[in-house]
Specification:
alpha/beta; Rossmann fold; 10 helices
């Protein structure tokens, strides 16, 4: 098996390189409106945003920022297949404007856009991220009534294009090979993920190279896009990330045996991506090993409870809980070929260690 991964360093508001109705799954995390670290980026896209922020007109700036994001979302609407899934990791913002502390509900505005544009809103996922401050109480401290709740979670919004589910032939081999384990299903399809933690990344200034390094706190970990890709796509599908950043979604697609397309306005992030790419074979092997090890431990625990699994994997010969898991298959990365910003990945069947 092989997959192809393309990265375009340009604004994703015009994804002319992608045909309409060709993308199986979108997994992305855009810049969050009204988070201060993104002010300069949004202001560069629309000077009225900077004016609104300077005047302290918060919701005017909020709406203008989302208008910029919606240029990309309209392209997402165009390129996703009927029945395809869109997963957007986004957080709300809290900010003091004119000495008035308030919440800017990014997840609400984003949900409304997709609902208004023919997408079905599916149940979302919450995941918690660590706070950047040791002091979690804002406002009046220990005294009622004006302290504020600390915002420590983000949303994974999930939408389906159109009313019809994606239809695959009943005997489509890739679908059965792409199965996840029964116990993974029970964990992954919960509406709250408590086992993920945000990570800290050092990155170059988002507007251009000026020698400065800034920290982007609590970016999503590889486990998040990897999980979503395995939940909502099959081997050989094409994954889109219109806000590529350091390429975590692309790495997840490579490990998962899916094709991918990505857009990013700052080509400097490619250097960070190349570092991750050097470790890709080991990353893939480590993830595969852990999934198999965790499953074998689960089966041992299952049997200790006096339960007897009814089925056995045809490929790996360990026990599984359901008939849908018997063709479960993982791939190991064999070789990586780079041609400019196009990467081709070759795979072998994963072998138990």
């Amino acid at each position: 098996m092989e997959t192809v991964h393309k990265i375009f360093f340009k604004n994703s508001s015009r994804m002319y390189e992608i045909e309409s109705n060709s993308i199986d799954l979108v997994v992305t995390s855009p810049p969050y409106p009204m988070i201060e670290m993104w002010d300069s980026l949004f202001s560069r896209l629309n000077k009225r945003i900077q004016v609104a922020l300077q005047k302290g007109v918060g919701f005017n700036a909020f709406n203008l920022m989302h208008a910029e994001l919606e240029k990309v979302w309209r392209e997402v609407v165009r390129v996703v297949k009927p029945g395809g899934i869109v997963c957007i990791n986004i957080g709300d913002a809290t900010r003091k404007i004119n000495n008035n502390f308030q919440l800017f509900p990014n997840h609400v505005r984003t949900t409304t856009f997709f609902q208004d544009n023919g997408f079905v809103v599916l149940p979302s996922i919450l995941w918690r991220k660590p706070t950047n401050s040791p002091n979690k109480f804002l406002g009046s401290g220990m005294l009622p009534t004006n302290a504020y709740i600390t915002l420590e979670h983000e949303y994974i919004l999930i939408f389906r294009k159109g009313d019809e589910k994606r239809i695959l032939p009943p005997a489509f081999e890739n679908r059965y090979n792409s199965a996840y384990f029964w116990e993974e299903r029970n964990k992954w399809f919960s509406d709250m993920w408590l086992d993920l933690k945000g990570i800290f990344q050092k990155m170059n200034n988002l507007i251009g190279s000026n020698g400065k390094i800034r920290k982007r706190s609590a970016a999503f970990p590889l486990k998040l896009p990897y999980r979503l890709i395995n939940m909502f796509s099959i081997y050989g599908d094409t994954i889109l990330d219109p806000f590529w950043g350091t390429g975590t979604t692309t790495i997840a697609a490579m490990v998962s045996g899916r094709n991918s397309v990505a857009y990013e306005i700052n080509s400097e992030f490619l250097e960070t991506f190349k570092i991750e790419l050097k470790a890709l074979k080991n990353t893939s092997q480590s993830i595969n090993n852990k999934r198999i090890k965790d499953h074998i431990e689960f089966i041992k625990s299952y049997k200790k409870k006096g339960k007897d699994p009814k089925y056995r994997s045809n490929i790996y010969e360990f026990s599984v809980i359901t008939k849908q898991e018997i063709e479960f298959l993982l791939y190991s990365i064999k070789k990586i070929i780079k041609n400019e910003n196009i990467f081709t990945i070759f795979y072998d069947k994963y072998e138990l260690e």
